[in-house]
Specification:
Blueprint: H1 5-10, H2 12-15, H3 21-30, E1 32-36, H4 42-52, E2 56-60, H5 85-96, E3 101-105, H6 114-118, E4 123-126, H7 131-144, E5 148-154, E6 157-163, H8 171-175, H9 187-190, H10 194-213, E7 222-227, E8 232-237
Parallel strand pairs: 1-2, 1-4, 2-3, 4-5
Antiparallel strand pairs: 5-6, 6-7, 7-8
Helix pairs in contact: 4-5, 4-10
């Protein structure tokens, strides 16, 4: 791939970085990243992936834009209320960067469609807002062998980790199984600081860019925890669990399945 003069100008601040350069920018333009959820986390992630020149961005979400979303879901505007989120998100990403191809899926990610959709992508950003969906993303990425960034936000707290299947601790090594319904308050009950979504979602985009470039250290075997009120980041070391039901020595989860939807956890919306 040869960069055009317009692309050299657009990505000039990338190209002057020795860790990126022209070859790295070509890698980004050839990269394929899937956003699962176009909400609080997917919004900043999608905008920065498009700006960075990730060549193919998929976005899957079954929702339409609601007025309550706009406090944190910055990819959507007031005039987008009632519009499918995937359409609203695609329009903004392509407005930022016409180099980018956006593939939209106005549907939920399910056990029936997950592996087929994931097969087209190099990296997944999990911006979902409930435990069943997060476990589905984790399981699907494991079976597909696709690296992914998990993240969640609630009130003033956020967390994220990156998983490379077969190499690092997976989501189930840490959280094992969804909590019972009602055990965790929903976002509408507990609230969420809008700008927190920007902090965590942008970090997820950073992980995707680093992975496509093959540069830097990913947040594998680590859970990065952020508290907005205290402006405090802390990193918790993780290890693969031999007894993990998904990636352990004797896995008990051997196929994808949908679990009953519950309230949102540390959530993406």
């Amino acid at each position: 791939m040869n960069l055009t003069e317009a692309q050299i100008e657009r990505y000039s601040r990338h190209i002057i970085l020795s860790e990126v350069g022209g070859k790295g920018q070509e890698k980004l333009l050839g990269g394929k990243v899937l956003l699962v959820g176009a909400g609080g986390l997917g919004s900043p992630a999608g905008l920065y992936l498009a700006a960075a020149g990730i060549g193919t961005i998929g976005v899957i979400d079954a929702d339409v834009v609601d007025l309550t979303n706009l406090q944190r879901q910055i990819i959507h505007f007031t005039d987008d209320v009632g519009v499918p989120k995937v359409e609203s998100a695609a329009a903004k990403m392509q407005a930022i960067n016409p180099d980018v191809q956006v593939c939209t899926y106005h549907q939920r990610l399910t056990a029936d469609n997950a592996l087929e959709i994931l097969a087209d992508y190099d990296f997944v950003i999990d911006g979902t807002d409930n435990f069943p969906s997060k476990f589905l993303v984790a399981d699907a990425c494991h079976f597909a062998g696709t690296p992914y960034s998990h993240a969640g936000i609630l009130r003033f707290d956020g967390q994220l980790m990156t998983v490379v299947p077969g190499q690092s601790a997976c989501y189930r090594c840490v959280f094992n199984a969804p909590p019972p319904p009602g055990a965790v308050p929903s976002c509408s009950q507990a609230g969420v600081l809008g700008v927190l979504a920007g902090v965590i979602g942008t970090l997820q985009a950073t992980e995707a860019v680093k992975y496509v470039l093959g540069e830097g250290e990913l947040l594998t075997d680590s859970l990065l925890v952020y508290n907005a009120l205290k402006s405090n980041f802390r990193k918790v070391s993780l290890k693969r669990k031999p007894t993990c039901p998904l990636c352990g020595e004797a896995p008990t989860i051997t196929e994808l399945k949908d679990e009953a939807q519950a309230v949102c956890d540390l959530a993406g919306r």
